[in-house]
Fold this sequence. Notes:
The protein is mainly α. It contains 7 helices and no strands. Keywords: Membrane, Transmembrane, Transmembrane helix. This is DUF998 domain-containing protein.
Amino acid sequence: MRLGAxxxxxxxxxxxxxxxxxxxxxxTNPWFVFTKNAFSDLGxxxxxxxxxxxxxxxxxxxxVFLYAIYLTRLGVNKVEVVSASFVMVAAVFLxxxxxxxxxxxxxxxxxxxxxxQFDTAILTSGIGLLLRGLKNxxxxxxxxxxxxxxxxxxxxxxxxxxxxxxxxxxxxxWAVLVFTSYRSxxxxxxxxxxxxxx
Length: 198
C-alpha cells in the first residue's frame, strides 16, 4: 500500500484538524466554559451541533490511523513499529469517542483509553528513536512522556477540558518531534537500516 509523499504530513494535519474541530464547536456553543466543561460536552446532548464534534473526531481518527500505517512502514526497528501499532489502537479509540459520545455508557472508558494508548505510543516511540541512534530526539520524546504524565497526574486541573488540552498538546508536540525525526534522515536510509535489523 502506497500512501504517497503527503503521508508524512498526516500527523500534523490531524493535530491541526483536531483543534479546528474543537475551536469551531466552542464558538457554536457559547455555554461552553473551558475551566468547567469537558471537550466531550461539545458532542453531547447539550451541544448545538453534536455531530460536528463527533464526526470531526472520527475524521481526525482516520488521519491518525493512516499516519500510523505510514509509521509502521517507515519504522526502522521493531520498537518503532510497536509504537506505530499503539497509535493505530489510539486512533480506533478516538473514533469510538465520536461514536460513543458524551452521555453514553462506554464514553468514559474509550476517552480514557485513547490517552493511555497514546501515552504508551509516545513512550515506545522514544525508546525506538533511542535504538535508532537519534539520541537527542529520543531524549526529547522520553522527556515529553515523563513531563506530560507527571504534570497530568500532579496538577489540580479545574476541569476535564483543561487536562484534555494538556494531553492533546503533548500529542501535538510528539507529532512534531516524530515528523522532525523522519525528515532528518535520508530518504533511502529506512530500507538500509531495516535490512540491517533483519
